[in-house]
Each structure stands twice: as C-alpha cells, then as structure tokens.
Write a structure and sequence with these properties.
alpha/beta
C-alpha cells in the first residue's frame, strides 16, 4: 500500500509555530514515528507553502497511490483549485487538521476539500494523521 501525506502552508513550522495549538513536535520527527509504526505501508511526505505545488502533487499521485492524507491548512478554506484537484483525481483523500477548525475563526469552518474527501478528521492533534492512515487499512 502506498500512501502520501501532503501538508500545506506553514506546517513546515510545526514544533515552533503556536505550540499551544499545534504542539512542540516537528512534522519530520512525527513522520519518522509513523513510518516505524506502519512498516508495511510505503509512506511518503510532501509539504509546500505554494498552492500550485500542492495541486501538482495531487495530480502526480492522484491516479497511482492508494490514499492521500491532505492537510491543506489555510488553503482548505480558500482554494477552489485544490478542491477541484481533489475532485478530479481517483485516489481517495482524507482531509486532516491538527486543530479543531470549528472552535476557531468562522472562516475556518468552510472547506473546499471536504465535499470530495473520503473523510475529514480535525481536532485530534497529530494523532489525526495516524487515524487517517488507519482508515485506509
């Protein structure tokens, strides 16, 4: 099984940015933990702060991977393009957010991805990524 985690803008700052919301662990360290826990899965990771690069990656993997775990971060609430990319690919997508987006600002309650996602996980911290992986097993 081949799965990819795609993270959007500012998630490269995990471990530094607002630790009270996002925790103090870097995503790279957390990803190593996931790889050890799910040894039978080919796990890949991609992060970009650039909307077009996220769309390009979705197009690249969206027809030959078994699953995509997508945390588009702020683009979740603003990018029709990423929403359309998720709609246009065959690989199922699970949308993940570290924080509870419904406990935050009103604009974060809208997702252009959720309608075409296999499922949505939010508010479980980094554990949400693990839950998303388990949804593909």
């Amino acid at each position: 099984m081949k799965l990819i985690i795609i993270n959007g803008p500012n998630l490269n700052l995990l471990g530094k940015r607002e630790p009270e919301i996002y925790g103090s662990e870097t995503f790279e360290d957390f990803f190593k933990t996931l790889q050890l826990k799910f040894k039978n899965i080919e796990l890949f990771y991609f992060q970009s702060n650039i909307e077009g690069e996220i769309i390009d990656k979705l197009h690249e993997v969206g027809f030959n991977f078994d699953g995509i775990i997508l945390n588009a971060a702020a683009y979740t609430h603003t990018s029709v393009g990423i929403g359309d990319a998720v709609k246009g690919i065959e690989t199922p997508v699970v949308e993940v957010h570290i924080s509870n987006i419904h406990a935050r600002e009103d604009f974060r309650h809208q997702s252009f991805i959720a309608k075409n996602a296999k499922g949505v996980l939010f508010g479980f911290g980094l554990k949400g990524y693990e839950l998303a992986i388990q949804s593909f097993l």
